[in-house]
Amino acid sequence: MRTEYEKLREMGKSCHSKHSLKHRRQNTLGSCDWLSLLPDPLLLHILSFLPIEDVIRTSLLSRRWRYLWMFVPSIDFRCRPYYKADKTIVAFMDRLLLYHEAMKVQKFCIQFCYRDEYADNVDSWIHTMLRRNVEELYLDFFHSCCPYYLHEKALYKLPRSFFHCRSLITLSLRSCDLNLPSSVCLSSLKTLCLCKFELTSDMLKNLIFGCPLLEDLMLKNCNTNSDLIILAAHPHLKRLKIHDVYVDLGYEINIHAPGLLMLEYSGCLKRRNYDCIKTLKSLESAKFECEEYDWCLDTNHENYCFLYPKLLGYLHVKDLKLDSWFIQALSVMEVLNSSAQHITATCMEMKTGLKKWELPGIAYLLKNSPSLGTLTVSIKPSEKIKLDDFQKKYDFDERKYWKVKFFSLQHLKKVIIHNFMGGDEYLDSGQSAGKFIRDHDNEFQFVKFLLKNVVALQIMIVKTSREDTFRELAKKEPLLLKITQRILSFPRASPNVRLWVS
Amino acid sequence: MASTSNSTSSKIITLRSSDGEVFEVEESVALESNLIRRMMEDDCANNIIPLPNVTAPIFYLVIEHCKKHAEMKDNKEKKKELRSQGEELLKSDPHTYSNLMEAVNYLDIKSLMDLTAQWLADFLKGKSPRLIRELLKIKNDFTPEEEAEILERNRWAFD
């Protein structure tokens, strides 16, 4: 068997070398069928990265492939378009599972618009998967186009036995009825993602308690109409991600997780009691990505901005990642000269533009981070907070902003700037390099400020934008050279700094 | 490849490829391979570890990718970059690709197994059987009757 296979391989080699040049010109991959020569386990592994429709289609390639799909360890079916809720999908899954023979299913992923009449079918799929010791399960039964969302009874009700599965390692659920039993035992579960659920604090506590190995918990748009209380009694829970967008104002949040290392918060910060973050003593890294698009409606936005520096005060982390919204809110605080918070981070990442009303926020962060060692700035355009009156009142000259700032960043050793001169939404193609550089003066001023003030700087890496407009311009003119020359001409506080521009 | 002498001193492991070339690899990189890990645990790796199924150029590629993969942890941009590099390799040198995949399988390196499989999956995704056959030179050895039968049987998947 083995020698036969090796013979085939040899054949593969020789036919490859003979024709390779000729075929390289075409879009073919090689000149002989090397793929079919790979052993079954490897082919199945490749197939496991494909949606199930693509996997089944390979049965038509050749005899070698005819039955292979039946043993693929992963079934990934996502209905496109999503709202297509017809019987053919259900029939498709029924038949698929009838033929599918892999004894062990690694991953089962299904996304489609559920209807009441499919309950028995879905039940049988899930039972089949549980019997085959599925490790990763993704169930998503809902779409906003689906009018059934309003009726509780139209939600798929998970079978009670579901919550006693020992093989599950990753579980992601969206829009179904949890139907949670009083005792949960998902003894291998490490990652749990819940999307669009209303969970009472007891339910959530019970669920977390029943997953003794749970390390990652993700809650997306959960409890939009109620308090979100996360109580993790055991210290295994390491990472918590919360995505809150459509929350009604004023509901509370409370997190009790003694071993939590990482907190990621995205969406809007409209809940009450963010003070609870203070109690997360073991936290090492935190990330905030805000989408406060309805700020302009909030008349009291200046007061609202006070939350952000307070949050910084609560977070005793080494690793901090913030985005433009957060930084713009800090800008308000900086301009108002309001109380500074001590920031403990040694490593900070900012995903922000370097537009006028982001500058004071960046200054606020740098000024208050005495231990900062590594700074990463990923330049990304973002929507402006609408605070026109405020901004008129406290106007300043952005071109001179960094020139008048002095503060020492004693420990900062490494600065990385991604997407330098990128993030332009509108760019006319006929622009010259000179004007392009002038338009991005804020970026240069920021680099200049860092080089001039950071005494211990060892390395600064500036990665220019990979966007099309930048590349096109760089083709016509020596843009990179001009950028490098300009940056190299800036005075440096640290004699040994290495500069990389790419 | 000088060994660094810090407290967590990274040990250097010596490996020999099938064509006799000797590689010195940092332990942390070498241990990505479950095969090498097992060999070291079984203590049959005191001196040079032989890798009879991997040639030097392929092993070099494996190490390169191991390093890149370690670097890209939590870095989405790099991940994308690494994922898109696969297409280039597939198109320019599919023979090396299949050798790499087999080597990675033999060495039992989970992260690279997934990466190399993803490369090909990305290539196959959304393509019709006819196009895949053409691009990969797969010979259609079905009789017309057989082909019709598969189409009929799996019609539910081809619609």
UniProtKB/TrEMBL annotation, chain A:
InterPro entries: F-box-like_dom_sf (IPR036047), F-box_dom (IPR001810), FBL13/AtMIF1-like (IPR050232), LRR_At1g61320_AtMIF1 (IPR055357), LRR_dom_sf (IPR032675). It holds the Pfam family LRR_At1g61320_AtMIF1. SMART domains: FBOX. Residues 32-68 form the F-box domain. This is F-box-like protein.
Automatic annotation (TrEMBL), chain B:
Keywords: Ubl conjugation pathway. Pathway: Protein modification; protein ubiquitination. Residues 110-157 form the SKP1 component dimerisation domain. Residues 11-70 form the SKP1 component POZ domain. GO terms for biological process: jasmonic acid mediated signaling pathway; protein ubiquitination; ubiquitin-dependent protein catabolic process. InterPro entries: SKP1 (IPR016897), SKP1-like (IPR001232), SKP1-like_dim_sf (IPR036296), SKP1/BTB/POZ_sf (IPR011333), Skp1_comp_dimer (IPR016072), Skp1_comp_POZ (IPR016073). Gene3D superfamilies: Potassium Channel Kv1.1, Chain A. SUPFAM superfamilies: POZ domain, Skp1 dimerisation domain-like. It comes from the Eukaryota. Belongs to the SKP1 family. Part of a SCF (SKP1-cullin-F-box) protein ligase complex. Involved in ubiquitination and subsequent proteasomal degradation of target proteins. Together with CUL1, RBX1 and a F-box protein, it forms a SCF E3 ubiquitin ligase complex. The functional specificity of this complex depends on the type of F-box protein. In the SCF complex, it serves as an adapter that links the F-box protein to CUL1. This is SKP1-like protein. It comes from Cinnamomum micranthum f. kanehirae.
